[in-house]
């Protein structure tokens, strides 16, 4: 940029040209990040599941609580996300945030980068590996028989909720138990994933009978369902509270399921949830897949999840609007 300036002194006038150059200046920490991808600590979050519902939920929590503000970089990895920080304290803060919402196992390590012997100073990089339990809502688990007996539940259960504890539903006896992170990770070899929500199949109700058991807000009801209008099954389901004939349910077909972890008789079907109404006109043009619809339905049915979500100003109105649309 050039500026013409006229200077006058002692009756002498002279015109000179001033040349200005504008350079953007970053703070020292930002310069390090820009030049060398500098980071002091990293939090590596991993969730080894076949679907991404956990990360849908994690994204909303991070946005709501602004847990990303101190990061210098965020990268998507296989089965996880890496969060980079300029100092260890902010990384520890994110780890504690994750521990407050999910059952996790945390491993820490440090690596010496440089050492100033003269000034007795050392430079370290810190790594926090955060492993989340490898399943999510609606997944079907098989628990080692003796361990399941000690918990007072059947060996085949549904994951009903993943918060700072794991809620497991014994869908035959209508019992719900909660396990904390330590209870799971110290016995992880006794848990096996049988089916994830990617394997959910549609079934249509033909006939409904009266409930034979009511507990924990569930009704155990004998029903008759059909798959593809061909195969017919007579089973019991815990979803009997709000069902009617011709409703569509989502569940797991285990009739031809070949899995070595099953050691005893299993039901032909395990019904998980009613199918959501996807004929909803959203205010924004959202590209939603199956997992997003399942997650949105969970939001509508769980006030605790709603309370932790992002971009919800009037929670009651959002829930009522969503439930109304789901019942259309």
Automatic annotation (TrEMBL):
InterPro entries: Nmd3 (IPR039768), Nmd3_N (IPR007064), OB_NMD3 (IPR048898). It is found in: Cytoplasm; Nucleus. Residues 200-274 form the 60S ribosomal export protein NMD3 OB-fold domain. Residues 7-132 form the Nmd3 N-terminal domain. Keywords: Cytoplasm, Nucleus, Protein transport, Transport. GO terms for cellular component: cytoplasm; nucleus. GO terms for biological process: protein transport; ribosomal large subunit export from nucleus. Its main location: cytoplasm. It comes from the Eukaryota. Belongs to the NMD3 family. PANTHER family: 60S RIBOSOMAL EXPORT PROTEIN NMD3, NONSENSE-MEDIATED MRNA DECAY PROTEIN 3. Acts as an adapter for the XPO1/CRM1-mediated export of the 60S ribosomal subunit. This is 60S ribosomal export protein NMD3. It comes from Nosema bombycis (strain CQ1 / CVCC 102059). The gene is NMD3.
